[in-house]
């Protein structure tokens, strides 16, 4: 069963090239995301590149791995989280004032049974966790906006 698409967007008063520079530097993901503590790419960013990540929520820490699924400079960056089958994308679109940045989480085939169990058992259940993810996406976009507009 497909999970709902989670999405947030923001308009940034900075050129696409500046916003892309921030988004495509995955080592900075921990500065943007409330949950991500480390995202380390294993090689040059391109489709197929893997990352090793460490996430945190309160006292809980958990590792994940990702694979870059899309890499179109100054347009789109996407990665699949191997442990739960979700795909996260950042899409950049030029606007009159700068850039519209859209962050999306897709789970076309649903999330894994293990992920659903762990979210249900330790993270308050899927609906509240998904709401928390949307809040985190909005926080991430606000942080990227602040850095880009500096």
Automatic annotation (TrEMBL):
A family per Pfam: Polyketide_cyc2
Top-level taxonomic group: Bacteria
TM spans (from-to): none
Name this protein carries in UniProt: Activator of Hsp90 ATPase 1-like protein
Source species: Mycolicibacterium gilvum (strain DSM 45189 / LMG 24558 / Spyr1) (Mycobacterium gilvum)
